[in-house]
Structures are given as structure tokens and as C-alpha cells.
Amino acid sequence: MALTQTQFEASADRETTRGVVRLVSRIIEQKRVICRAVAVAFVLITIVAFLIPTDYESTARLMPPEKPKGEGLAAMLASSGGEGGAGNPALGSFLADSLGIKGSGALYVGVLKSTTVQDTLVDQFNLCRVYRKRYRKDADKKLAENTDLSEDRKSGIISITVTDHSPQRAQQLATAYVTTLNQLSAQLNSSEAHRERVFLEERLKAVKLDLAAADKDLSEYSSKNLTLDVKEQGKAMVTGAAALEGELIAAESQLSGIEQIYTPNNIRVRSLRARVDLLRKKLSELRGNDVALPNANGNNESPIGDNGNDVGISLSQLPVLGVTYYDLYRRAKVQETVFEVLTKQYELAKVDEAKELPVIKVLDNPQLPERSSGPPRVRIILIGTLLAFCAVVGWIWFVDRWECTDADDPRKATILELNAVTLVALQPGFERLRSVWRRLARRTGSNGEGAE
To answer: Which positions ≥6 away from 30 have C-beta within 8 Å?
Structure first.
């Protein structure tokens, strides 16, 4: 039994050797055919390789912004390593990745891959027309295929590589990625300083309206009641009343002395009496107990005419007017103080927000590509030519195996039968092509004879 197995293996080896020798001999016999086929394939593949559009790459490298303190577990893990590890960042990164905690780099890579960023770039550069896509969604997919976004785990540097047939557009797209990321970071910033700034901004608008209303009410009340400053007006009116009363006493004393010397119809007596009446009238108006005093003619008409109180208000009216005035004044001062305090806080909040605003730090700006990044034409030509050579050799091997197979082999009979059925099915099509070819040949021949 062992001898039979050995003989079988030896027979199989001899058969394999004979097949290899036969294939090599057939290749040598068909070397011209192989060379021609490989040459034709080389020319065709070269043409196809140079017809493929040239690609250019432009790369931007970013450093993710430093996060403010208070990042919680992520910041603790990022700075972990303890006293023994001396704050090993690699260990912190490993622990964060193990727990599924992503850093700011992964966040910004996700933002760059978002539909918002892609739609912005598609609209900005009209990529639907450039990529020959009807819908924006298809243009977004094409842009995502042409963009390589990666993050270095060790350093955290984000790389943005854009591939395009135009070197200028590749550079512009890479730059637009960075600009759009900055804009989105500013819009999506939800820090404490940002929320405080937004709240103070809204509060300032409301306080400003309240301050304007309070100032308007105070000015209208002061204009209507002739009250500029009740406190100062009161001091001035008391001082004026005292001065008027002093003048009145002096005038009355002088009148009493002159009346003992001259008659009542004397011009000096009448003039001094008119002055006393006028001072009494003014003092009465200033005190708020205005009454009609008899003048020199003996009637009750006011010697100053019908204009009433020249000073506008009296001492008796000041307490009543002062309550409303000081209430309106207090409201205006309160709103003014609140406005000043909120304005200071608003400016401080804007400064804090600017400090916390994530600004993308560009490590390498996108450069205009000087050399093409693809396609690898030499590699395409070499691999295509090699595949063409293998295909020709495979065809020769198949033909050799076909010829060496017995006609009684059921597999060969089945293939021949399928071939015959296929030829019968395709016969009408071949006949039509042959008739069309004949018509074209006849027309070409007739046109040539007519030209002669």
C-alpha cells in the first residue's frame, strides 16, 4: 500500500513537471504574440494613466486650543501620572481613551466633519458645479472623500489634508476649513463668561429703556411744575422771602416816617406806599398765601397785573411737589446707578469671554502645492503591464489545457455545448452588424467613385 502511494505521488510530480515544461515551451513559441499583446496593453494603459486628472494636496496642521481650568475628570486624566509619573501625558491619554473620554482634538475633528462645515464650504466654493453633482448631499460626500482629517494621539495635532484637481482650490479649501472652524467655535462657545455676557447684554437693554423712561418722566414733571431742584429751590425761596421781608420792614418804617411829615397825596408817600404794596404782594406769593391787598387807590387789584406768581411755585407748594419730584428723581438715579454698574460688569464679561474664547492655533498654514500628489502613473503603468502579461500567459495556459483535454471529457463537452447555444443566440445580432457594415461599405465606395 505504501509503495502504491509513493508511485502515485511520483506520477503526479512527473505530470506537473511535464505541464510546466509544456507551458514554458508554449510561451516561448508564442513570445511574439505575448510581446505584441503586452506592448499594446502598455500603450493603452499609459494613455489611460495620463488621462486621469492630476491631484494636488494642501495640508493645514492645527493645535487644539487649551481648555480653561475646571475640565473635571478629563483634565485630571490628562494631567494624571501622579507623583511617580510626573504628569505623564501619554498615560493620561491612555486612561482617557480607555474610559471613552475624548479630548478637544476629537471634538474639533467631529466639528470639521459636520454637515454644517461641509455645506458652508460647498456653498462658498460652488462645489456642486465643480464636482458635477446635482444635490448638495452628494457634493458633501465628495468633499468628505477628498478631505483627510486626523489627530495625532501623542501630540494632539490635527491635520487637515484637502485633495483637489486645482492646487489653488486645494489651498483655499484647507484655509476655509480653519476659518469656518474658528467661526463655529465662537458661535458654539457656551462658557460661563459667554453666558454672563449675554445675560448682561439683555439686562442692559432693559435698564436702558427704564432709565430713558425715568428721565422722561422727571423732565416732564419738572417742566410742568417748574421744579428744577426742590432742595436748592427751597433754599433760594427762603432766602428770597427773608430778603423781601427785610425790605418790606424797611419800606414800612420809611413810609411811617414820611407819612408824619407829608400829606397822603404827596408823591413820595404814594410812591413809597406802592413799593410797600408790591413787596407785600411778592412776599405773599412766595409764601403761598396770596391775597389781594389794597393798593394806594383803595381797590384790591394787584399792582403787578394778572401774571400771577412770577417765581412759578410757592413755599407752601414745595412739600407737595417735593414728594413726587424726589420719587421720580430717585427712580432716575437708581436706574442710572444700575446702568453704570451693569455697564462695568458687561465690559469685564466681554474681556473674560475674549480670554476664554477658543482660538484655533495654526501650526502649519496651507501652502500652494508645487507637485502633484497623484495619480501614481508609473505604478499604474507597471502594474497594468504586469497584469496584461499575466492575462496573456493565463490565456496561453488555458488554451494549452483545452487542447490537452480529451474530447470525451464531460466538462469540455458541457463548455462546447454552452458555446454553441451562445453562438446561436447571438447569431441574429451578428447578422445585423454584418448587414450594417456592408451598407456602410457600399456607401463609402459609392461616395469614393462619385468623387473620382
So the answer is: 396
